[in-house]
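G.,

No rush on this.
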Amino acid sequence: SHPSHLVHIHFHTTSIGLNRFDGHRFRTITQEENEDLSSVLPESDIRILYFDSFIQKLWVCSVNRMTQYRPQTDDFQTFPFLDASGNTHQNTSVNCLFRDDSGILWAGTRRGLYRFDEQTATFLWCSQPKGIDRFEIKAIYPDENGWIWMGTSQGLFKFKADSKGDIQFADQPEDSSLQKMFESDIRLICKDDNGYLWLGVQESGIYAWKAGEVPRFFQHELSDPFSLDNNDVRAISKDPSGRIWIGTFLGLNIYNPQTQRFQRVHHQEGNPKSLGSGSVRSIFFDKRGSAWIGTY
């Protein structure tokens, strides 16, 4: 029987398809599963999974396609990306998805920002200020009062949208102490219980910042065993107790806000209870508070 919804199903991505875990066993879904094209993935190299609680469906982002898994029929539907002229955009390569409080679904890609149009079932390219439209969008994260943070290859920006999806960008801060951070290559965004934004910078480290304060920058320090183990930050997530979990090229780092120290967790050869592999690509906390760590 087909699953009626996704609460008890865990999906995992690989370069050869999608793995679905129902609590008892894994099922691998690949591009070549059967001849019915609606039942298979258009591509097997899966990069991102996003469970859309607004519609109770799973978005599956591969290298060149955006696909939606439909649990009621156990199949997939593909959605196109359109440019300003209505032409299909190829090779969009989605980096992040986010549905805001007004119900708009945003997609950050290497070609810029898109929003999903429910009526036409297409992703429409968003007109942005000159220059920003050329940036690769790597992270999207909600702020307050309808504003949304956007991490790009050329810096950190904040925008909001009206009911039609038209967007307005906030002015960049003039404070010199924020300039370097706002111009960094931001690939990850997370917010902790104390209101600090954690901003992963491409292969350089991570910022912790709250409005009105000077940003704090964390990097690997050879002489400090409580620093980040590596500057190539791949994942950021907050656990139920408020700690920040950071995945890097070399392992897992757990930041305790009270001690302001990182605890390092690494793969240990021959120890089946250690981290599965050296590099951490994703971190997810389920409803029970258990951490799921994607490694490679």
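When you get to it, here's the other one too:
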Amino acid sequence: SLGNRARATWENRSHPASVAPARAWGPNQQEPRILLRTLYQDVRRAAAPVLARVRDRALPQSCLLCGDTGPQAICKPCALSLPRVGADACPRCQLASVHGQVCGRCLKRPPQWQHLLAPWSYAFPFDAALLAAKYGHAFAVYRWAAENALSGHAWPFARGATMLPVPLAPERLQARGYNQALLIAREFARHFADADLRVDNDAAVRIRETDVQQRLNWIERRRNVRGAFAATRSLAGESVLLVDDVLTTGATLNELARVALAAGAAQVDALVLARVQPLRRREKTVKFNRAVT
């Protein structure tokens, strides 16, 4: 019939003889591009140690702390001397606790985040390394920290988490040229690629400039950052991991965690490279002219 001839003519035009029809892949078969991507990842993973040895021999670097030549930003002897946070620290604030239980401070005034990881204490000589990275562009410290933070242990946070670096104000970001929290988040996401982490630098913004926190006591720090952040999108159902370089009182991270929870985050955790140990009462009096708890 005329209809059948028209249909046949259309099928011939749509599928000319010179073009082979697309192969129908079964439910248990992978397309070639998926197989090639898997093969590429396997080859890259197998070649990474060899390429790293070639890089280290061809481009040796000096230890940031002692100056000795070696393959990493911080040599092994210096790394062993860095002050680490004890395994029995409180899981929510990383300060001294009993048998790794939640401490009395966090029970009385719990932070907005659930778990905090701070591998090192902010003390000599690691504080010098972080200052060199933050103000002296020694960014290799961040890669070294990501590779050595967990000492070979598995990723402790949720897989597929959204990494949220603490945002800087536009003026401070323009003056510095980079956000150190973003650099740290990228290094951890790269090193722990199997955890499928996603860095979202635009999910939150700092909506007003704040005073430098170093000059303020604990109460003033809370007031200083109150209302300083805002979420730019919904975080509904997401596991959010806040990232920063140093935690002193936790006021900044606490405010950002509050914003993330208000945006719908299912859980908020925090990751910093170093934890400042609290001052004793006499040291507080000397620093702030009065004892501040």
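The beta strands are 61-62, 69-70, 116-117, 120-121, 162-165, 198-199, 204-206, 229-231, 239-247, 267-275. DSSP finds eleven helices and ten strands in the chain.

Enjoy the weekend,
O.
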